[in-house]
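Notebook entry, cofactor series.
This is the third protein in the set we're modelling with a bound small molecule. For this one the ligand is adenosine-5'-diphosphate. I'm keeping the input format identical across the series so the outputs can be compared line by line later. Sequence and SMILES below, as received.
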Amino acid sequence: MTPVLRTEQIHTYYGKSHILHGVNLEVREGELVALLGRNGAGKTTTMRSIMGLTPAREGDIFLFGQKTTKWSSYKIANAGVGYVPEGRKIFGHLSVHENLLVPPVTKGRWQIPDVYTLFPRLDERRTSKAGKLSGGEQEMLAIGRALLLNPRFLILDEPSQGLAPVIVQEVMRTVGKMKHEGIAVLLVEQNAFLALQLADRAYVLSDGEVVHEGPAAALAADKERMEALAGVAHG
Ligand SMILES: Nc1ncnc2c1ncn2[C@@H]1O[C@H](COP(=O)(O)OP(=O)(O)O)[C@@H](O)[C@H]1O
Ligand SMILES: [Mg+2]
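Returned structure with ligand:
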């Protein structure tokens, strides 16, 4: 079967800074794949390369079997790739409902009422200013907005960042639901312990290179590697 995503030896730069050094990744249909690594490892840069925001200078990216290396981020999103960037990027001065009216209407399973069904907390806060929501609710809103584009593939950059532990569990359950909806997910996390509870497979990035890949369960059981992933030695 054609993979949802394949990156082949991608090299990405910011100006003269060479950040990604030949990254190979694959996400298959129905999979939840974790992309792990310490702060500064190149996780966000990998996402930005896939989304065409910071295009790879060398190597190739394939989405749903099509070579998208040089496509605009707009065209990539329209092909069915949802992206929830770091820091969420919701419109704080707009209400919850107004935020959900921002994406263009697309055909498919996910319409605004479906987002409210998935996230009853958002339903309760329809008229609240998004900027007044808790961090967990803002993350739900960002995911909900991405779902309205009816993506076949969802890329989440550190959805747990800055959230209280109890809210993190809730957001992670949400990420798990995406997989059950049949959406392939690439989950970027610094918290390897959490991400590996959900993921089928995992990649570990270090200094812009993949230093490990394999089944999530095997990595979670690898004490040495888990300890190397800083601050996740517990559990
Ligand atoms: N806009 C930028 N300009 C220059 N260097 C950057 C920029 N964004 C990130 N970097 C550098 O690229 C490296 C990888 O960053 P990033 O992909 O954000 O890592 P991660 O998401 O894994 O924390 C870091 O060394 C970071 O300092
Ligand atoms: Mg990052």
